[in-house]
Amino acid sequence: MKFKNKIFACLLALLVIGDVSCKKYLDINTSPLTATKVDPKLLFGYAVTAWDVNKNSGDNYIALGFLGQNLANGGNFSDNWGAFNIYVLSPNFLSNTWNVYYSTAGNNFKQAIAIAESSIPKNNNAAAQCKITYAEMMYEATTLYGDIPYSQASQADQFPYPKYDAQKDVFESLLSLLDEANAQIDVNSPLKISDYDIFYSGDMNAWKRLANTIKFKILMTMVDKDPTKAAAIGTLISNPSTMMSSTADTWQVKYSGATNNENPKYRLFLGQNPFTYASKVATDLMVPSNDPRLPKYFDLPAGQTTYKGVAENAEADATTSLMSLYLYRKNAPSVIIGYPQIELLEAEAWARGLGVAANLVTAQTLYKKGVTDAMTFYEADPTAISTYVNDPVRFPLLTPTNALTLIHTQQWLDLLDRSLDAFTQWRRSGVDGSSEIPVLTLPKDATPGPLFRRYPYPVTETTANSNIPKPVPAYSDKMWFDL
Questions:
Q1: Which residues pair with 165 in a beta bridge?
Q2: Cα separations in angstroms, 428 against 220, 226, 293, 336
Q3: Please, what are the domains in the chain?
Q4: Which pTM does this prediction carry?
Q5: What is the pLDDT of residues 411-450, one digit of tens each?
Q6: Helix, strand, or coil (residue 234)
Q7: What is d(CA 149, CA 461) in angstroms, rounded to the nearest whole number?
Q8: β-strand partners of 65
Q9: How far apart are CA 98 and CA 138, in angstroms?
Q10: How many CB atoms neighbour CB 120 within 10 A?
Q11: Within the chain, how many helices (H) and strands (E) appear?
């Protein structure tokens, strides 16, 4: 992707190497890439920061937002992006994200685990905290790239050119890693990451629930391709207290807004947003029902009273709504997994009867609460929320014929400000390459052919690792879970 504004491009580069967020968590005197005797909490803190910066950067949030069409670039009307073939990806976007998964974050998590488990006494809780976070990060890596190095990853001395594991095998390994981490947790032990645990401050019961929550999310990604996963899903949704059980459990990085502790998107946009627009895909879903999140997701241009999106890479104009400064405020949290996301996945599982008898009453309860909690998280007007979810025209009851369409729509809308999650949800929702929700069309000026479905492997990997899959997948090739 290209930029008109060279200064903005430089800012992205600075963000990628981690020049934002929780400064205290970067207080490492020894290089995190070579450290062998360092407290695991420091490696954990550095890895989490690098990962979160990338998730909210031009390499991930913006690039995937345009490719997945939850954001719009506004074409040549934009002050920064300009119209271009968005399917021609910059090598920097691909390699920067890959490097986070395998170097600045991934390698540090693996080192932290090894150090925690070799300590005397063994710090099982710290190892578990790192394993759980690493599992989520590698879940993201495989849903973005497909087959990836996993079993031999971050073992450069032994495997300088790691093999690529099939996506199904990666998912299975992550499920095992989460079970291992959960069994490793001792809620009564004082040995754990506490002060550098920016998520739960060392609450190991919360970490146990998180491990099960990630497991549930992975199973829901697998079940369409591997229906045998339904039994494990049924066990989890029949015991929901073992997973996230309230909005207080939301897995997020909380930013104070103080200097060097601002949300990365605030730093990315310099506290402004003159060039990233509302996607027509989103406004077409939200405007007809007057969704209470509209004023939280989008800003109206001066003199406008109606929210208006624009198709990807098409020309915006002075009446087109922008992505809101509310989303890009200094103290906006960076959500990794939100409780509403899990409620809506549970609603889907009950509606489909995954490992349980299908139950639309239970699904409806979870669906309504999930949407209410999703809107509340973004501080939508409480009266407007109540009116919306109790209006059968704007918020229809689930039926056997409409349940999945309605649930998948709300899942995608909940993830609108989390580009990778929205992109994965969109691919997960389809069964034949044409039934994904929402319906996306080929962006203006994009290479003719199928829609974008994955990041290609970075050139730095394809030219260095002879174990790269052959043939090398194209950006439009489906991966294992994507039916």
A1: 148
A2: 9, 13, 24, 18
A3: 6-262+439-462 (1.25.40.390), 265-323 (no CATH)
A4: 0.92
A5: 999 999 999 999 999 999 987 767 999 999 999 999 999 9
A6: helix
A7: 11
A8: none
A9: 11
A10: 5
A11: 18, 6
